[in-house]
Amino acid sequence: MALSKDKPVEVEGIEGVQYAANDSVFDNGHKYPRMACYCDEPGADCVPAGALNVSRCRYGAPAFVSLPHLYGADPYFPSKLAGLHPTPEHRFRLSLEMYTGMPLQVSAQLQINLLVRHIAGFT
Question: Which residues form the domain of 76?
Fold first, then answer.
C-alpha cells in the first residue's frame, strides 16, 4: 500500500509528516492504468474504483476491501448503498517523525464488504 505525503503534523510537541492513502490505493485500473493488475480478471468488467475484489484470496467468498464508508470510492457505491457517511477521518493515515522514522500516529482502518444478491424464493 503506497501512501502519499499529505501534510506536516505536530503530535505531543513532536513535529512529523503525515502520509495518507490517495485514490490509487483501491483502484483497479479505472483511474490509474498501472493498477489494472488488481482487477480480478484483466479485461473483464471490474468493480468501480474504491473497492478491491479479494474473493480469490477468501476461497471464493464475495468479499471486497475498501476504506470505511467507501471513502473516496466511485459514486456508483453510494448510489447502491444506504447509510454511507464517508469523511476525511476515514482515510488510511500514518504520521512519522522524519529523523528517526518513528510512528507518531496511525489510523489504519479498512472495511470488508460482502456482495449479497437476491435469491428467488427468499424474502
Answer: 4-114
How far apart, in whole angstroms, are the C-alpha atoms of residue 102 and residue 81?
Answer: 38
pLDDT greater at residue 91 or residue 104: 104
- Residue 13 domain flag: yes
38 is a domain residue: yes
Nearest residue to 49 (alpha-carbon basis) of 68, 75, 69: 75
Residue 14 has a pLDDT of 95
- 123 has a pLDDT exceeding 90: no
Q: Where are the alpha helices (DSSP H) in the chain?
A: 76-80
Q: Is the pLDDT of residue 40 over 80?
A: no
Is residue 104 assigned to a domain?
yes
Per the structure, the count of domains in the chain is: 1
- What single letter denotes the amino acid at residue 4? S
Query: Which grid coordinates belong to 36?
Result: 489494472
How many whole angstroms separate alpha carbon 120 and alpha carbon 122? 6
CA angle 91, 88, 19 (to 5 degrees): 45
All three cell numbers of 76: 456508483
When pLDDT is cut at 50, 70 and 90, the band that residue 4 belongs to is: confident
